[in-house]
Amino acid sequence: MSNLDGVHCLIAGGTGSVGEAIVRVFLRAGATVVVPSRTQVALDRLSEYLGDDAASPRLMTVVGNVGDPADAVRVRDEVLSRVGRLDAVVASLGGTWDERLKLVDVPFETWRNYWDSNLSPHFVAARTWLPVLAGRQGSSYTLLGGLSAVMPIAQYGVVSVNSAGQLMLARVLMEEMKDTCVRINQVMFGYIHTRARAAHARPEWITAEEVGEFCAYLASAAGACVGSGVIQLGNRPPRR
Questions:
Q1: What pLDDT does 154 receive?
Q2: How many whole angstroms separate alpha carbon 10 and alpha carbon 21?
Q3: pLDDT digits (tens, 9 = 90+) for 14-31
Q4: How confident is the model over 61-76, as pLDDT tens digits?
Q5: Which of 55, 85, 148, 219 is deepest in the core (most CB within 10 A)?
Q6: How far, CA to CA in Å, does 141 sit from each of 38, 42, 99, 222?
Q7: Which one-letter DSSP state was computed for residue 235?
Q8: Which residues contact 147 (CB under 8 A, 6 or more apart)?
Q9: Average pLDDT for residues 175-185, to the nearest whole number?
């Protein structure tokens, strides 16, 4: 496990099915972890999942919407006033798509709502937190996305197009901030074994905990050797 002693991290989306595992991994690696969420109910569910780890004095929770420009600024100011600085941010943002429609059959409101709830929060989070990290030596910003950005999937186009937009967002951020201190990485996954998918998860899927461990590595001193870039993590090799 990576050593994150003394590292201050914010996990945007830390109450989600992947984010909760990232929070646990970071706490157990020694980090001070900040988790914002739109509702206290979601934060309470996170505490239940974390169990004894929820009592850690290194865990800070904030009620606030990091996808809303005005509220994101309020959350940023509150976080910095309480923890003093940030060394790393992980953006585990976005939801799922279960409707399985061809793009030409997707209602416009559904299209717009998916973009507003999935890509826009990444944009708002980046413009809020990257300036905070830009001057901090060794800092890192990690975006999580799906391999559907580069693999068109029929009846999953809303997600694929959105994921491709996030991928380009990350690449533009890398280019525009290449002369600052922050390392920016877009980490792309296939299927992830989460608690929500446990009933039908396959052995080759990586787990949410493994995602957390990789994010912790990128945020650690050891991960400083990894420059800004796009990293694809697919399924584990089949057993022979």
A1: 87
A2: 14
A3: 999 999 999 999 999 999
A4: 999 999 999 999 999 9
A5: 219
A6: 21, 23, 31, 15
A7: P
A8: 163, 188, 189, 190, 232, 234
A9: 97
40 CB-near residues (< 8 Å, 6+ apart): 63
What number of other Cβ atoms are within 10 A of residue 59's Cβ? 21
* The two three-digit tokens of residue 10, written as one number: 């914010």
Strands 183-189 and 140-146: parallel
> Helices H, strands E: what count in the chain?
6, 9
Structure tokens at 130: 């990257």
| 43: Cβ contacts below 8 Å, ≥ 6 apart | 15, 35, 37, 61, 63
**206: nearest Cα among 236, 231, 238:** 236
Amino acid, single-letter form, for residue 180 = T
179 contacts: CB under 8 Å, gap ≥ 6: none
Q: What does DSSP say about strands 8-12 and 229-233: parallel, antiparallel, or unpaired?
A: unpaired
Tell me the three state secondary structure of residue 231: strand
Quickly state the pLDDT bin for 238 (edges 50, 70, 90).
low
Block residue for tokens 């787990």: 207
CA–CA dist 16, 133 (Å, integer): 23
DSSP string over 143-159: EEEEGGGTS--TT-HHH
Question: And the tokens for 63?
Answer: 């009620």
How does DSSP assign 95-132, residue by residue? --------GGGS-HHHHHHHHHHHHHHHHHHHHHHHHH
State residue 190's pLDDT score.
85
Neighbours of 38 (CB within 10 A): 15
Distance CA(15)–CA(17), nearest Å, equals 7
